[in-house]
Design brief:
The chain has 182 residues and is mostly beta strands. It has no helices and 17 strands. The termini are far apart.
């Protein structure tokens, strides 16, 4: 689908609610190829985490922050999606992983992992995206699933997950913001 600002295209991995547009989603996970320098699309009331999957990297200018260099070895970078942000490529196109949640409704985390891991039970949404290598994911009572680079898995269970293989991967967790009444 086209970027909100028309400057490129993105592949939507998962969105809630299903088939939500760019102004209605509660949360969204996508990959995009950034082939030229330019501004990011603004998403009012949304928090974003960006990770570089392939390519040499990008320099980000986020309003109110010093310039940030983000490459495939960098930790995921979280920032508000409604502040002015622009990117310049270091040496050619990059593919990035973009996780966005509606502020005040959902929260998210994005973690880098490598190799075998035990991923605890989670009441919200979990998504695994294989960055490199082959990742085998197992859960109680289900056949193992093998992920290759840029494959994603959205498990339909809250049970713990076990991963095996030589893969580098991202674990995304999304949960609803708890309501507190005074």
């Amino acid at each position: 689908m086209p970027w909100k600002n028309g400057g490129g295209e993105t592949v939507e991995i998962a969105v809630d609610p299903p088939d939500a547009g760019l102004d209605e989603f509660g949360w969204r996970v996508s990959m995009a190829t950034v082939a030229s320098d330019g501004p990011f699309s603004a998403f009012p009331g949304v928090d974003r985490t960006l990770s570089v999957l392939t390519g040499a990297g990008i320099r980000l200018d986020i309003e109110g922050h010093e310039r940030i260099l983000l490459d495939a070895q960098s930790d995921p970078l979280s920032f508000p999606a409604d502040v002015a942000t622009s990117a310049s490529l270091i040496d050619g196109a990059v593919t990035d992983l973009n996780v966005m949640t509606r502020r005040g409704v959902f929260l998210h985390t994005v973690e880098r992992h490598a190799g075998a891991s035990s991923i605890p039970r989670w009441d919200g949404v979990r998504l695994l995206l294989c960055r490199e290598g082959m990742l085998t994911v197992r859960t109680h009572g289900c056949d193992p699933v093998v992920l290759h680079p840029l494959d994603a898995l959205l498990p339909n269970t809250e049970d713990p997950l076990d991963t095996a293989g030589d893969a580098g991967f991202f674990l995304i967790r999304i949960g609803k913001v708890a309501c507190h009444f005074v």
